[in-house]
Amino acid sequence: MPEITTLLMFQGRAEEAMTLYTSLLPDSEVLTITRYGPEGPGAEGSVVHATFTLSGQRYACMDSSQPHDFTFTPSTSLYVNCETEEELDRLYAALSEDGQALMPLGDYGFSRKFGWVNDRFGVSWQLNLPA
């Protein structure tokens, strides 16, 4: 079977995003980082490819060596079922800092508490406290 990994493509902020995400969730760590050297084609020190885990789930990220006019869209998001209301509130606060609230924390009828944000990097997060 082929291995399928979610890849997040940034424009110069991959390591910053990965560091934030792994600091917020348990059982999370940076596994590998390969950086561009002075020969490019990306900015020296930026991320060619990196792997990390969030709550044991494997992800990859990179800094695009090519400028582009697109970024992340909320139609694809990371969905987190939180174990406690305190955890949900903490994640919502950290991920919405310098980001954008798409759905403020509240009871929308399908869970005890839910919030949806785009973080400062443009990655969309749905945070849920199951009923």
UniProtKB/TrEMBL annotation:
Matching Pfam families: 3-dmu-9_3-mt
CDD domains xrefs: PhnB_like
Family annotation (InterPro entries): 3_dmu_93_MTrfase, Glyas_Bleomycin-R_OHBP_Dase, PhnB-like
Residue intervals of the PhnB-like domain: 3-127
Listed SUPFAM superfamilies: Glyoxalase/Bleomycin resistance protein/Dihydroxybiphenyl dioxygenase
Annotated protein name in UniProt: VOC family protein
Protein's organism: Saccharothrix xinjiangensis
